[in-house]
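Let us practice reading a record.
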Amino acid sequence: MIKKILLTFVVLLIAIAAGAFLYLDSIVTRGIEVMGSRVLGTNVTVDSVALSPLGGQGSIADLRIENPAGFNADHVFELGYISLSLDVSSIFDDVITIESITIAQPVITYETRITTDNIRALLANLPASGDGNSSTSTDTGTSKQVVIRELIILNPQLTLSAGLVSAPIQLPDLVLRDIGTDLGAVSIAEAARVILSALQASILQADLPNLDLLRDSIENSVQETTDQAGRAIDDAVDNLGNRLRGLRN
């Protein structure tokens, strides 16, 4: 009797584990969207997640982070493909251990205002470091901690946007290591802060174009187009007037 009970219990555990792994991809997808949106204070969406429970390899397709409120572009980050290696069992623990993350050719829209920019706005949305309010931590997903041993961003494509002016910029690759290892682990918000700060520093150190020259060039182009359009309208009006006079005669 006891053997039957134990066997039933073991079978039940196997069924639960199999079910958990069966829906693991959708669980992780939902977790990224919910925790990412809460931590960053803007909408985060993921098209799909594929994880190998045995190998610990995985990928994330089309992760998009919407621009913070007050900025024009739809998204600040568009991450088409992310590959990762992690301890899959740690997904259900308090600390998620990620061996490596590689983000290939992310599209970044860096939008500036007079006194701020959209990446700075994302940083401002993050929960304050060392916030001891447990309810706040739970609400924002910061009770979950993470260790990221290596993060690689390859060929980041930046679009610099300031008002009507925009310019494409190729950023250098970015490599970050040992995020959270010194402290044992860090909150997801703190990991996001480290990554966003490094990206912001990379952008500010890049060879940015002279926006004033770009703006002057665009204004001149707009003025030329306006002048041409004005002349075309004048010609059309003159032609119409001549035709009307011809009809009257």
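A brief commentary: The longest strand covers residues 75-86.
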